[in-house]
Design the sequence.
């Protein structure tokens, strides 16, 4: 196809829409199982169906798309599986808010009607983020799009649950769990976010039973939970209290007495008073202590985190305190308890105290440790093989600094609470026979499983299911009870944790448990790209489930990218007003500019400090590439002649050699997941070497006669720029496709073109050495011009020499190119014994460049400028020197940051030497 002209300005919106639709229509992202080539698979971290593209999504999906486009061009049979997560709690909350706005509720309309309503919402609004992913250029196989509640994945979920249950790796039991009183559901440990909060430490006197005016003072941050105390603990070796062990205290505000026990594990003698209360139903550490010491557990809260006095013995609390505290939320109850303690003279004093507060990861409500019957996975038998997979290197976590985090969590992991008290999700495949379990099904209204006061009774919510109840676990819905033959069965109302189905994502999306061709061809997957925030939520669980059910790791590499923060390093939030909306920036600057920005900043182990100016800067890079393409296409009608690399001109041989380096470096960087380095290579090569030097160098040849040299240069120019588009394509897919289509090409799209590989015939160290000499002279001549405040159009005369004979020969051979880009006459001599007095001499290495200073130059003004520049650079050099001398900087900073500072200091030192030399010379001219 002959070359075509491009419009004057690049229009990202029209280009992105056109090519985005073209790629999908042509099926360019859809592999087949019989396609040749080694498979390369990525499964997308499924965004929530409620979601909209945020900047974190934009980063992770950009990096995945770079990998998949690159591997596709390398000839791999690539599959990128897209899909969305049903996001149980988040999605249910969205639809519940809609119902509340309509004056209704999920309880009013019932479970099935509510689920129908959620599915309807999903059909209408659930594909928003999929459309936005396509806008971003994600080259997923959209024909294989999955949803964690679709039929195939639901079958996989049921198979895994039943299989684990049959192997005694899933069980139901009553334990203290993380309870969200807003979402009214259990949460696993990793779904609880901890943040430091300012609180109080209350010192409360517990009267020792049977002894007058003898008190044991305990310290607590939650005085309201004392109503559930079942013991007070001291350290058995603490001389202050060891004589009290075995005695009892009277529980303030209650008529109960509780024992004083010794426990060296729970008690820290240095904290508070060295005596602590034990409340097994309200604290995880206390629950463990209660089990060790065989203490009873006394629940005091209902599922809304209110103190429920109906759980107490009838005469345990006196009026009016009992009425005052009944159904009071935790914070309000705290105030009532503290007031009552003060009134009885039992509150000794309070201290300010910082503490970690657990909050629901979805709604940010403070979590309530709450005793409840739930379903659990025995995690350690699954965790051990997953630890081994990373230890052995079968799975690589990149950067490897995350290995210790992974091992630390996996070696101390607790059983996974997988049941959730919501309706939207995979309902647990457990049924109960009312006849067989009549002793264990209680119509109690005090349980979190029981309906609320205004909630209609249904088959599924009328029972509190005791932990002792015997479930029927089945891959299919049972009709009759296998024990008694009865048909009065009801399904457990709980649903599975969203992360349970997500843990199966790498193999369930490929057809497992059926013997599917996709599973055989594309599993195990190749690379997982994800954020550090879901390393335990999701990644660890996928490894455990993958090994358990496929006997293979689910992926080979896990690339953990950093978080995207604002320009000051602050976490983005709507309240701070510092959120960068990727969709807005894609509209303002173009999608490729945003993609390249994110890739260029994806440095391992370092959070991204994203400023809008960076996106704007890379938009300018897009414009630079576009303008270069337009310039090249101006010469598309001329004859193109391919000469062997060794017979081409100096500029052509140099750019081929440099392109060869760029191909090598880009490929190596992508192999190592150094997206930042690959981006830097492309930017430096394209902007500085190709546009600033090569295009400028070849203009005289292009604009001269149609010689063989011009024909060869036109060929090299088209050849290299087309190859550059292929090198650039994984990062800037839209721009590269638009330009590639305008150049002579074969094939329907750049998407399926081969990724560039090194060409040994292009490698030319001697030519690169000559260019370094050329660049050194031209750059120094430009420095002279700038120091003398002369414009590029002013005629100037330069002298040049070198003490290095080889360098001198290279300078002579490049004379025409040097004169052209120095924009002046250049004379080379054997020595620097130049007679003229008004000569500014700049020395760089073994080279000396003399610039004739004409009489019309204001030397005093020049001297003032030089001195000002020198002062500024000295100030910067002093600051850098101070930083590099600081132990705190060198010990904490990333090696790349230190290296960058050292490099900058070295350059500043050289620049200062040049300025000081120039200052002395100009000053002498003024004398």
Sequence:
């Amino acid at each position: 196809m002959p070359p075509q002209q491009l419009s004057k300005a690049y229009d990202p919106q029209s280009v992105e829409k056109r090519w985005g639709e073209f790629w999908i229509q042509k099926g360019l992202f859809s592999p087949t199982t019989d396609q040749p080539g080694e498979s390369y698979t990525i499964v997308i971290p499924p965004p929530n169906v409620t979601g909209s593209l945020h900047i974190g999504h934009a980063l992770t999906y950009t990096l995945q798309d770079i990998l998949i486009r690159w591997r596709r061009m390398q000839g791999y049979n690539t599959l990128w599986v897209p899909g969305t997560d049903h996001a149980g709690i988040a999605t249910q909350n969205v639809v519940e808010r809609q119902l509340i706005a309509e004056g209704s509720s999920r309880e009013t309309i019932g479970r099935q009607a509510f689920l129908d309503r959620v599915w309807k919402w999903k059909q209408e609004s659930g594909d928003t983020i999929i459309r936005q992913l396509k806008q971003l250029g994600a080259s997923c196989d959209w024909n294989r799009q999955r949803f964690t509640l679709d039929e195939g994945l639901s079958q996989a979920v049921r198979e895994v649950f039943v299989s684990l249950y049959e192997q005694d790796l899933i069980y139901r039991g009553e334990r203290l769990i993380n309870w969200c009183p807003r979402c009214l559901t259990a949460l696993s440990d990793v779904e609880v976010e901890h943040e430091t909060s300012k609180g109080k430490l209350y010192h409360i006197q517990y009267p020792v039973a049977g002894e007058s005016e003898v008190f044991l003072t305990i310290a607590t941050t939650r005085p309201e939970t004392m109503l559930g105390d079942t013991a007070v603990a001291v350290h058995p070796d603490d001389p202050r209290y060891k004589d009290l062990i075995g005695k009892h205290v009277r529980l303030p505000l209650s008529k109960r007495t509780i024992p004083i026990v010794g426990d060296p594990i729970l008690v820290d003698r240095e904290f508070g008073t060295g005596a602590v209360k034990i409340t097994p139903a309200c604290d995880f550490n206390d629950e463990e202590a209660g089990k060790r010491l065989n203490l009873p557990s006394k629940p005091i809260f209902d599922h809304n985190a209110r103190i429920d006095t109906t759980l107490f013995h009838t005469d345990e609390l006196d009026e009016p305190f009992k009425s005052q505290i009944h159904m009071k939320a935790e914070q309000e109850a705290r105030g009532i308890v503290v007031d009552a303690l003060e009134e009885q003279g039992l509150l000794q004093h309070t201290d300010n105290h910082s503490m970690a507060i657990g909050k629901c990861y979805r709604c940010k409500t403070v979590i309530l440790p709450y005793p409840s019957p739930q379903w659990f996975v025995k995690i350690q038998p699954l965790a051990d093989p997953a630890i081994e997979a990373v230890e052995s290197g079968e799975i690589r976590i990149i950067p490897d600094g995350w290995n210790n985090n992974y091992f630390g969590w996996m070696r101390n992991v607790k059983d996974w609470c997988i049941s959730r008290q919501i309706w939207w999700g995979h309902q647990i495949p457990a049924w109960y026979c009312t006849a067989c379990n009549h002793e264990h099904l209680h119509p109690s209204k005090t349980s979190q499983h029981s309906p609320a006061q205004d909630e209609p009774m249904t088959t599924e919510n009328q029972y509190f299911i005791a932990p002792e109840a015997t479930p029927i676990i089945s891959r299919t819905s049972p009709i009759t009870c296998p024990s008694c033959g009865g048909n009065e069965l009801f399904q457990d109302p709980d649903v599975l944790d969203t992360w349970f189905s997500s843990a199966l994502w790498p193999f369930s999306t490929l057809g497992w448990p059926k013997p599917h061709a996709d599973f055989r061809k594309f599993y195990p997957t190749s690379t997982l790209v994800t954020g550090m925030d879901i390393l335990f939520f999701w990644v660890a669980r996928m490894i455990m489930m993958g090994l358990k059910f496929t006997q293979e790791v689910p992926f080979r590499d896990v690339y953990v990218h950093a978080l995207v923060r604002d320009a000051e390093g602050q976490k983005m939030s709507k309240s701070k007003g510092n959120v960068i909306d990727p969709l807005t920036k894609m509209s303002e600057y173009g999608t490729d500019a945003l993609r390249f920005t994110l890739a260029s900043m994806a440095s391992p182990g370092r959070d991204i400090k994203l400023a809008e100016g960076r996106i704007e800067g890379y938009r300018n890079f897009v414009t630079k590439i576009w303008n270069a393409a337009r310039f090249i296409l101006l010469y598309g009608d001329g004859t193109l002649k391919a000469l062997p690399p060794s017979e081409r001109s100096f500029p052509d041989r140099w750019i081929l050699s440099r392109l060869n380096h760029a191909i090598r470096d880009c490929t190596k960087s992508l192999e190592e997941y150094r997206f930042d380095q690959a981006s830097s290579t492309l930017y430096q090569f394209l902007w500085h070497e190709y546009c600033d030097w090569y295009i400028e160098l070849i203009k005289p040849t292009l604009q001269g006669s149609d010689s063989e040299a011009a024909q060869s240069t036109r060929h090299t120019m088209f050849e290299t720029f087309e190859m550059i588009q292929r090198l650039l394509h994984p990062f800037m897919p839209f721009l590269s496709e638009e330009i590639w289509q305008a150049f002579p090409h074969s094939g329907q799209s750049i998407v399926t073109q081969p990724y560039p590989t090194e060409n040994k015939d292009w490698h030319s160290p001697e030519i690169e050495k000559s260019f370094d000499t050329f660049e050194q002279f031209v750059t120094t001549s430009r420095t002279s011009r700038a120091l003398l405040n002369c414009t590029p159009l002013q005629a100037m005369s330069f002298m040049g020499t070198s003490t290095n004979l080889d360098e001198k020969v290279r300078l002579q051979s490049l004379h025409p190119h040097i004169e052209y880009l120095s924009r002046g006459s250049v004379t080379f001599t054997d020595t620097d014994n130049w007679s003229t007095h008004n000569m500014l001499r700049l020395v760089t290495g073994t080279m000396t460049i003399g610039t004739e200073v004409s009489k019309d130059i204001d030397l005093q003004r020049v001297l003032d400028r030089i001195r000002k520049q020198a002062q500024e650079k000295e100030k910067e050099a002093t600051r850098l020197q101070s930083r590099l001398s600081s132990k705190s900087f060198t010990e904490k900073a990333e090696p790349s940051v230190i290296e960058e500072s050292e490099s900058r200091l070295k350059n500043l030192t050289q620049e200062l030497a040049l300025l000081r030399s120039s200052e002395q010379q100009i000053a002498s001219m003024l004398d």
Summary: The CA atoms of residues 84 and 147 lie 5 Å apart. The longest strand covers residues 192-207.
